[in-house]
Design a protein that fits this description.
The complex is a heterodimer.
Chain A: H1 12-31, E1 35-40, E2 59-64, E3 70-72, E4 75-77, H2 83-92, E5 103-108, E6 113-118, E7 121-126, H3 132-158, H4 167-176, E8 181-183
Parallel strand pairs in A: 2-7, 7-8
Antiparallel strand pairs in A: 2-3, 3-4, 5-6
Helix pairs in contact in A: 2-3
Chain B: H1 18-38, E1 44-45, E2 50-51, E3 55-56, E4 63-71, H2 76-79, E5 84-87, E6 90-92, H3 97-106, E7 117-122, H4 128-140, E8 145-149, E9 151-152
Parallel strand pairs in B: 2-9, 4-7, 7-8
Antiparallel strand pairs in B: 1-4, 4-5, 5-6
Classes of the chains: A alpha/beta, B alpha/beta.
Chain lengths: 193, 154
């Protein structure tokens, strides 16, 4: 009985399969990058009492208490999602309301024009008992407000959203609408954590 | 004269593809190991808060992580439920932050030392007290670029 040689297995497709796995892992490992809200912390205060006094109308005071309740300029805010509109209204102040932020003229080199820039600053203060979730929600709303204002400005000026501008234009828009969020120095009310 | 050689078959022999897959598998394992090795194991539970205005952190080598959350079930018996800070591979206190900032800065090239992003990975149920303390420590040690790590939602 003649036993024929067994034919060789075609292993060429094996490499295809392992290539597929390889690319899968390559892609999934790079997608999983860190993302979040980016902020710049202010440098520490050297001396006490050198706070810059600001006009009351130029400050939007946002307070968050230990029960995650929000107060904006001594007015209770029932929902976080209303904060974005409040902030936008405060910063842009389209009707020139005397209770909302003042404006100043500033020459922006990147754009080559003189622009009206809001003097408004959002002052955010939270309690030690505020939950991190609420803090991020507030920060998110504030960031969204500034981002939308920047988008509106870029759309009106250049006809495209802020993210599609080139670097110089972006720098210019950042000067016209700076993210002015100031976090108050933490104060310790009693010793409770 | 007049003799003809027998025609030799011209077809090239098949390449052995079996070893090719071995090489690719080697690559595969390399990448699998690398991607899991870079992350240090977490001792604290972290459920990131949700946000819409997130930005991606571009340079992974210029990110230092500060994890804050409730110790996970292996450590709860020893440490309780109070939120803890984890730096690299160990639990830390608020006053260890300054030391951590120094070592992280020293491990980077001099030109990039002020470009490190300090990524705060904080559980959403943690109270702001401990986060504020950490932020104050970061400010005092000249670490200003922070990132509040959060997941993107629509």
């Amino acid at each position: 009985m003649a036993r024929g040689k067994t034919p060789g297995l075609n292993t060429g497709s094996m490499s295809d399969i392992s290539f597929l796995l390889l690319t899968f892992f390559l892609l999934t490992s790079s997608i999983n990058t860190d993302q979040g809200i980016q902020r710049k912390l202010p440098p520490p205060l050297i001396a006490q009492g050198d706070d810059i006094q600001m006009h009351k109308r130029n400050v939007l005071v946002v307070l968050v208490n230990m029960n995650d309740q929000i107060m904006v300029n001594s007015e209770f805010l029932p929902d976080v999602n209303m904060l974005k509109e409040k902030t936008k209204e405060f910063i842009s102040n389209p009707s020139g309301d005397l209770n909302l932020s003042d404006k100043k003229q500033l020459y922006v080199q990147e754009l080559g024009t003189e622009e009206t820039v809001s003097k408004g600053v959002v002052s955010l203060q939270n309690d030690r008992g505020t939950s991190y979730e609420m803090y991020i929600a507030v920060q998110n709303q504030l960031t969204a407000a500034f981002n939308e204002l920047r988008d509106e400005f870029s759309n009106a000026r250049f006809g495209k959203p802020f993210n599609n501008l080139n670097n110089i234009q972006r720098k210019g828009v950042q000067k016209v609408i700076p993210i002015n969020i100031s976090e108050a120095e933490p104060v310790n009310y009693g010793g409770n954590k | 004269m007049g003799r003809f050689k027998k025609e030799v078959s011209k077809s090239t022999p098949d390449l052995n593809m079996g070893s090719m897959s071995d090489i690719i598998f080697m690559f595969l394992f390399f990448f699998m190991v690398i991607t899991t090795m870079r992350e240090s194991t977490l001792f604290v539970n972290i459920r990131l808060p949700k946000a819409t205005e997130v930005q991606k952190l571009d340079k992974k080598s210029l990110v230092a992580n500060i994890n804050i959350g409730e110790p996970n079930k292996n450590y709860v018996a020893k440490l309780g439920h109070e939120p803890r800070i984890q730096l690299n591979d160990q639990f830390a206190e608020v006053n260890d932050i300054a030391q951590f900032v120094m070592t992280e800065k020293m491990s980077r090239d001099e030109a990039y030392r002020n470009k490190i992003t300090w990524s705060l990975k904080v559980d959403k149920k943690v109270k702001m007290g401990i986060v504020t303390d950490v932020k104050q420590e970061l400010r005092l040690s000249n670490a200003f670029k922070v990132n509040y790590s959060s997941t993107k939602t629509k």
